[in-house]
Amino acid sequence: MPAPPPMRQEQGWIGARGREFPSGGGDAGMMLSRSHLRRRLVRQGLAAAAVLLLSPRPSPAQPAITAADWPTRSMRLIIPFPPGGATDLLARVLADRLGTRLGQTVVAENRGGAAGVIAAEAASRADPDGYTLFFGSIGTASINAHLHSKLSYRPEDLLPVALFADLPNVLVVRRDSPFRSVADVVAAARAKPGELTYASSGSGSSLHLSGEMLKADAGVDILHVPFRGGADTANQIMGGRIDLGMNNVPSVIALIRGGQLRALAVTSPERSEALPEVPTIAESGVPGLAGYAATAWFGLQVPRGTPAPIIDRLNREVNAICAEPQTIERVTSVGARMRGGSPADFARFIAQENDRWAAVIRRSGAQVD
């Protein structure tokens, strides 16, 4: 496999080949390298969080809370991306069903920006009283710590409650694009290195890293242009300002079915039930891509110190929601898959995902600061 080219990114108004791109609101420029010490500290922190998860307790400033006392008022679910994308769609499904089952309103609160950093910081600093919940993502839990030399939050300060759903990303182009397959894209990128552009919903997102992994594995140079959310990304591609893009399936499935966007491939190891006609990237036949697989995921988390009875109650409710036939149908119809499991299961999964994405970041050379 050819060595991956250095990662490049454009933001703001000046792009490749003199084209103009609206500001994407993504993080600042990319740098190369990543310290081994940082990765080691992150893993140590995650291991400590998994141990603490077994016996979470209120902070000294908080009175003891039991499941019988909770909830007595409305809650908020902090969502780390803007309205309109897959994260928002799935989070609102969870908020709606949790509110019904708990008998209290769960207010969905979008705090987009900086690939989830802003929202994760707010959630991690909230009172651990069970009234602030966080819709954690692959980015906030398993990617950001390996991309940023400094984070304004500690991922281990958000305790896992339950894995909620996962979904593939999808590589899309506008409907009149000359590209009809991943092989077409790779051939064009090799013919004109650095001239093709691909969009994501922000630097450090799973969509960004899915694109960087594709570039590294195929040995091509495609310019990354970050935007603010999946809806913005889709609009830039349809408008012809960007050549191709990575997006979550739920964010663009209606546009694919309606013919406004063409899906070239999904990033999951198997085809999506919602788009069975679309091949996987691993099926492309391109050298280096046979083992390609990337799946986005989301789960419920709470600030460290949230009482164990509340975590247990939330876990039971999320698992019950994941088993509801009407919710399963609602989620799978847009290309996602229900998950569930125990807090300890989710903690182990997060640790495994940290190992996986740290390796991808090292291989691609990506870093955001």
> How large is the count of helical segments?
11
Low-confidence stretches: 6-37, 50-60
Q: First CA to last CA: what distance? A: 29 Å
Assembly form of the protein: single chain
Summarize the topology:
Elements: H1 36-53, E1 75-79, H2 86-102, E2 106-110, H3 117-124, E3 132-137, H4 138-147, E4 158-174, H5 182-191, E5 197-200, H6 206-218, E6 223-226, H7 230-238, E7 244-248, H8 249-257, E8 261-266, E9 295-303, H9 308-322, H10 325-332, E10 337-338, H11 343-364
Parallel strand pairs: 1-2, 1-3, 5-6, 5-7
Antiparallel strand pairs: 3-9, 4-7, 4-8, 4-9, 4-10
Helix pairs in contact: 1-11, 2-9, 4-11, 6-11
Outline of the structure:
The protein contains 11 helices and 10 strands.
Description of the structure:
With 369 residues, the protein is of the alpha/beta class. The chain folds into 2 domains: 16-29 and 168-284, Periplasmic binding protein-like II (D-Maltodextrin-Binding Protein, domain 2, 3-Layer(aba) Sandwich); 36-167 and 296-364, Bordetella uptake gene, domain 1 (D-Maltodextrin-Binding Protein, domain 2), CATH 3.40.190. It is 38% helix and 17% strand. It has 11 helices and 10 strands. Strands 1, 2, 3, 4, 5, 6, 7, 8, 9 and 10 form a 10-stranded mixed sheet that branches. α2 (86-102) links the parallel β1 and β2. The longest helix has 22 residues, at 343-364. It is globular, with a radius of gyration of 20 Å. 52% of the residues are buried. Mean pLDDT is 86; it is low at 6-37 and 50-60.
